[in-house]
Design goal:
It is built from ten helices and no strands. With 212 residues, the chain is mostly helical. The chain has a domain of 115 residues. Helix 5 packs across helix 6 and helix 7 runs parallel beside helix 10. The longest helix has 21 residues.
Length: 212
């Protein structure tokens, strides 16, 4: 009697392929060749060493750098910066004209949006406006007086802006000094005095030496 196998029977009949040591060696060898490229020579007796090499080479380590928060851009117009400076620092218009190297009329036009400063002058406007932001955030009650203190090699904040040298550290120093002076003023009892308030006690002698 002959048994006829159809293709259907062949497809449905499960087949078991035994996994032997030689099969394992072949798999490791294939993986090593795939990773290291062709042209390499591997000894069959060192299959266990190849497996360690393959495993170490296929391991992937991903280092994720911490995301640094980026400060939002300042989208204020030149007029908004100018009015911020005027509101917080309240410098004289003539002083602003000197700092920015323009006429008093130009300052008024910038504040009213009739015209805009040139890029170089706009950079100085923004520089001084950001200093005003810092004074406002720190709650300094009279930032105007701090503009007059020539604490950095004989230069004031306005002088530093005019020469494009103002840095955040300069502003931080003056904020710390302003806070110290206001604390001393409160402890002196002058705040409760009926005498007319005066800023005469605030002077550059309160800052010893150079703070630059």
């Amino acid at each position: 009697m002959h048994t006829k196998f159809t293709p259907y029977n062949n497809l449905m009949t499960p087949k078991t392929i035994p996994i032997t040591q030689s099969t394992t060696t072949a798999l490791v060898l294939g993986a090593a060749l795939f990773i290291s490229g062709t042209g390499s020579v591997f000894e069959l007796s060192r299959a266990a060493d190849w497996r360690k090499m393959v495993e170490s080479r296929t391991a992937i380590t991903v280092d994720v750098e911490p995301i640094t928060e980026i400060a939002p851009n300042d989208f204020r117009t030149a007029a908004e910066h100018m009015n911020n400076i005027k509101q917080v620092l309240n410098p004289a218009i003539s002083n602003l004209a000197t700092v920015f190297g323009v006429s008093r009329q130009a300052i008024y036009k910038w504040m009213s949006s009739e015209s805009s400063p040139e890029p170089e002058k706009l950079q100085r406007v923004e520089m001084l406006s950001h200093a005003a932001d810092s004074f406002h955030k720190a709650g300094i009650r009279n930032a105007t007086a701090m503009l007059k203190i020539k604490a950095f090699d004989g230069l004031s904040i306005l002088d530093l802006v005019a020469s494009d040298q103002l840095l955040p550290k300069h502003v931080d120093v003056l904020i710390a000094e302003a806070q110290a002076m206001e604390s001393a003023y409160d402890r002196s009892g002058l705040a409760q005095s009926k005498a007319k308030p005066s800023d005469d006690w605030r002077s550059d002698v309160s800052i010893p030496g150079n703070l630059g």
